[in-house]
Amino acid sequence: MSTRNVVLHVADVHKRFAGLHALADIDLQVEEGTIHAIIGPNGAGKSTLLNVCIGRLAPDSGAVVFDGQVITGKQPHEINQMGVVRVFQTPEIFPDLSLLHNVMVPAFAKRDGPFRLNAFQPVWRRTDIRDEAMHWLEDVGLATQSHAIAGSLSRGDKRRLELAMGLVQKPRLLLLDEPTAGMSRHDTNSTIDLLKKFKGRGMTKVIIEHDMHVVFSLADRITVLAQGRIIADGPPDEVRGNPKVQEAYLGGVH
Ligand code: ADP
Ligand code: MG
User: Fold this and answer.
1) Residues with CB under 6 A from ligand 1
2) Mean pLDDT of the 38-53 span
3) pTM of the model
4) Where are the alpha helices (DSSP H) in 141-184?
5) Backbone Cα Rg of the chain
6) Mutate to test the pocket of ligand 1, among 17, 210, 230 (most ligand atoms within 8 A of CB)
């Protein structure tokens, strides 16, 4: 094991839904600055695990430790304020607002806490927030479209916007839920390039992904779930060659 700092430790987590063991004996460590992929067939427990990490679901037993602090039992917004940001599960952009305003909303919320939608007007005039939002739009390659309406963007560009909305919160841990779901190969490749660009930078990423091309292009480490249990955990080459993984997952694709 390397000496890198562990940012996220899912410690012996169990979660049942009625009779079903959605997560069993989950023990997982994510090292600082890495891209850590969680893969597995449908129903493996990936979304459940993510929801436990962000405080949307309480585990039946075990704990989640972020940055040395137990976060189990905290509210999702408290965990978010600590630097855990999740993007992409559902499109969470504001389709009727400009790209700039879309990024200003989380930038403002991060600094000043949540605010009501009808209180937007004074926010748009905040030049510090505006500059910060523009900075991230530039970084994801959307600066020239900053005044376009978000709903008019292509799927790939919406992902860029969502990423800017996540990055403006300066996360320590960014959780990406299937960043390329439903995308064309072109948009998928541009999303991979973008995520590579943001590799490191003091930020750790956990990525849930079905697309093996994406996983093997990006991940430093891969954890494979099947039926709520970890069946493999290691560097991509090791996981790729693991017969259990091929049986449970890789072999089942296409
Ligand atoms: P994945 O994201 O890997 O496809 P999930 O975490 O969504 O898997 O689901 C794991 C298992 O738990 C599945 O069998 C699913 O049907 C079940 N499950 C997920 N959420 C709930 C819920 N809220 N109530 C009951 N069963 C659930
Ligand atoms: Mg899921």
Assistant:
1) 17, 20, 22, 40, 42-48
2) 92
3) 0.88
4) 155-167
5) 18
6) 17
